[in-house]
């Protein structure tokens, strides 16, 4: 068997800039660079460039911009009949930015260790982004118990989703529904889900080419939403 050598730019040589996303590898799809750090400045620069960090505990920091991107327009989410019934039958409370650090930690701890990319280094980085007002979460509660949620980075009218979790059936779907509903209501346009998977596909997420995604984020990241993303209890707004 022939060994394959991959040559990647090291971000230590780029300071807080990144290589052109079109230089990303095709195999593995989207791998762009390695190294650097997870400073708030670098992470925000990455998102603004259509790039995200994704690596395992034993890896160096790896940066990705895949050839296709999983996205959904905020006003295009259509909940299934079963999800609507679930909301009506269950006494759940959904909040915004009430427990972001807890959501980040649970997104990491509820996955098998071999499946999670949310290392302690990543947890610390996104908690710092939370303190700086860049990272936001949606929380689903049954009474005083957090049973589901998601978190991500907001850049203007773009929300870059990072991860979600469920401790009860449908909890992450509820969080996603409320995120789409609220984000659309305040003027948000697009939710970036990074890489397609079966769960996202069931939620109505589709894929766009990297070049189209880059064009979209250039348009949306500097456009403000109608209100601050301040902590609150969320209600569904129909119509």
UniProtKB/TrEMBL annotation:
Its main location: cytoplasm. One of its GO terms (molecular function) is transferase activity. It catalyses: N-terminal L-lysyl-[protein] + L-leucyl-tRNA(Leu) = N-terminal L-leucyl-L-lysyl-[protein] + tRNA(Leu) + H(+); L-phenylalanyl-tRNA(Phe) + an N-terminal L-alpha-aminoacyl-[protein] = an N-terminal L-phenylalanyl-L-alpha-aminoacyl-[protein] + tRNA(Phe); N-terminal L-arginyl-[protein] + L-leucyl-tRNA(Leu) = N-terminal L-leucyl-L-arginyl-[protein] + tRNA(Leu) + H(+). It comes from the Bacteria. Keywords: Acyltransferase, Cytoplasm, Transferase. Gene3D superfamilies: Leucyl/phenylalanyl-tRNA-protein transferase, C-terminal domain, Leucyl/phenylalanyl-tRNA-protein transferase, N-terminal domain. Its EC number is 2.3.2.6. It is found in: Cytoplasm. The keyword Ribosomal protein does not apply. Coiled coil: none annotated. The keyword Endoplasmic reticulum does not apply. SUPFAM superfamilies: Acyl-CoA N-acyltransferases (Nat). It is an enzyme of class 2 (transferase). Pfam families: Leu_Phe_trans. PANTHER family: LEUCYL/PHENYLALANYL-TRNA--PROTEIN TRANSFERASE (PTHR30098), LEUCYL_PHENYLALANYL-TRNA--PROTEIN TRANSFERASE (PTHR30098:SF2). HAMAP family: Leu_Phe_trans (MF_00688). NCBIfam families: aat. Functions in the N-end rule pathway of protein degradation where it conjugates Leu, Phe and, less efficiently, Met from aminoacyl-tRNAs to the N-termini of proteins containing an N-terminal arginine or lysine. Belongs to the L/F-transferase family. This is Leucyl/phenylalanyl-tRNA--protein transferase. It comes from Vibrio algivorus. The gene is aat.
